[in-house]
Amino acid sequence: MAPPRGSSNLMAIYGYDVVLGSIAAFYIFMAPFTKVEESFNVQAMHDILYHQHHIEKYDHLEFPGVVPRTFIGALIVSILASPMVLAINLLHLPKIYSLLAVRLTLGFSILATLRFLRAQVKEKFGLQVEAFFVILVAIQFHLLFYCSRPLPNILALGLVNLSYGYWLKGSYYATLRCLIFATIVFRCDMLLLLCPLGLELLLTKSITLWKAIKCCIGAAIFSIGLTILVDSIMWQKLLWPEFNVFWFNSVLNRSSEWGTHPFYWYFTSALPRSLLAAYPLFMLGVILDKRIVFYILPVLSFVILYSKLPHKELRFVISSVPIFNLSAAIAASRIYNNRKKNLWNLLYIALLGLLVISLASTAITFMASYENYPSGYALKSLHRAKPKTLPVNCGFILIPSQL
């Protein structure tokens, strides 16, 4: 019996979302615990959902961290997750389920912005390029694993995905607005992407200088006003959190206290691990389709500029992954279309090999990450063994230290 036409239409429309969402959900349920880098936003979401307007009970007032962070991302995710958390509370389920709820909410929100980008990829480069784009994302580990982790980089990634989508669509001023908001509110280092991209748009006459100035000033005033309003209330003092982060990391250069890497580290370690098969393919895509150069240059400049900062982490350049994946998908599509030709046939075999190696690498990386939360598993066992001896309010259970 043939499947109902409605179900086939739904799979045609949402099939890729189901695939990517299922993988992201699998990572969430298998590794729900929290690392120190995301502890502020995790605790902030707990406090918003459980303490609500009683700000004096919030954790950050006693444990503010090295630099203050914005509450805007935590507020948005908490509002979206609140119906699930309400149901969890009514069913008297442990708080770990609330942590799963906010992770799922954030992960699916980031994937929704990626869906918008994919729609523009399909419109500009075709269905097949979109298909390879999804395949590359699915067999990479870091993007789908990190999409549910409330790091400032990931909150910014949602806006960066939207900006890339508007960029492909030709809505260049919307592109700038998204990047300005991401820079001012979530990650000041997005300025290193905003500047090359804006300069390219000016040089190619995609935007006019006067209109760009008005657009940027308006977006900046709105973003600064919003973050100062929200975060001054939450921190109970006049504050623009991301300016403090900029001063600490860039002006004082104190981020290097957390370790340093050589200039080339992003190109020899972070990008190969995050892109896998897409790393050599994205370079081939630039050769095969000149249209992608317009999109690659600002993103590549972003990574190069970021490389000048001594302290480096993979998550700092995760915003570059979608565009590099797009270039790689173009190369994979071209190889697939020409696979019956002699030289292209060898490239096609190499492509299949790269995809298999990427899948195996992702499986190994996942298993390593699964084992990388020893204190989370220890606290979980403790909760099971002695539940009545633990404090009543433990936050979102299990915020293990970075080990």
Account of the protein in words:
- The chain has 403 residues and is mainly alpha-helical.
- Helices cover 70% and strands 0% of the residues.
- The chain has 17 helices and no strands.
- The chain is globular.
- The C terminus is likely disordered.
Name a few traits of the molecule.
17 helices, 403 residues, globular, 0% strand, mainly alpha, single chain, 70% helix
User: What series of H and E elements makes up the topology?
Assistant: HHHHHHHHHHHHHHHHH
- SS content category: mainly alpha
Q: What percent of residues adopt helix (DSSP H or I)?
A: over 70%
Count of DSSP E strands?
0
The DSSP helix count reads: 17
As a whole number of angstroms, the C-alpha radius of gyration is: 22 Å
> What distance lies between the first and last C-alpha atoms, to the nearest angstrom?
54 Å
Low-confidence stretches at least 5 residues in length (pLDDT < 50)? 397-403
Reconstruct the topology from this structure.
Elements: H1 5-30, H2 39-50, H3 72-90, H4 96-125, H5 127-139, H6 142-146, H7 152-169, H8 172-186, H9 191-203, H10 209-235, H11 241-251, H12 265-275, H13 278-288, H14 293-306, H15 321-337, H16 342-370, H17 374-385
Helix pairs in contact: 1-4, 1-5, 2-3, 3-4, 4-5, 4-7, 5-15, 7-8, 8-9, 8-10, 9-14, 13-15
Question: Can you describe this structure in just a few lines?
Answer:
The chain is mainly α. The protein is 70% helix and 0% strand. It is built from 17 helices and no strands.
